[in-house]
Specification:
The protein is of the alpha/beta class and about 190 residues long. β2, α2 and β3 form a beta-alpha-beta unit.
Amino acid sequence: MLTPGIQTSYQKGVTSRFAQTGVATVMQKTATANCGAAPALFKIDAAGFLANATLSEEIFGPTTLLVTYESGEELLSLVRSLEGQLTATIHGTDEELATNGELISALEKKAGRLLFNGYPTGVEVCHSMVHGGPYPATSDGRSTSVGTRAIFRFTRQVCFQSFPDAALPDELKEENPRGILRLVDGEFKK
C-alpha cells in the first residue's frame, strides 16, 4: 500500500464488502509483513450487483468482486451500470468477439483502454499508452495521465483577440520568431 491512508481505506472497503448482502467470500488471506493488505476475493450474481450501487465503488488494493451473469442481456446491463474505468478486459474467442459488437460499443463508453485476452500492463510513457477513462476513472476524460498525449492535462487554450503583435507571446507573433509549426487560418505554416 502506498500510504497508511490507502491501507486504511482498503481495509474499510474490504470490511464493508464482507457485510454486503448476497456477497460471498471466495477467498481471504491474512496480511503479511511484505504486504500490509490482506487479499480477498468476493462473488455475487448480476441481480445482486445491480441492486446495490455501493458494490461498483472501487476498493484500491488486492481484492476482486467477481460478478456472474446468465445471459448476454444481463452482461450488457452490468456494463451499462458501471461508472468510468481505466481498463476493461474481454476474454473469449475471435468468433465471440465478432458477435459481441454491442458489448464492445458499451465498453468503449466506459473505459479508456480495452483489452482482448490479456491483462492490463503497468503504464509506460510512450506514444501508444493511454491511462484514463470517463469519470470517475479520471477527473478529465479528454486527456490521459500517461503517454505522450498527457501534456494536454497541463494545457489550457487562450485566445488573444485584437492584440498588437508586440504584446503577443512569441508563438503567436506574425513573424513566428520561434519558427514553430502553427495552424493559421486553417493551414499549417512555419
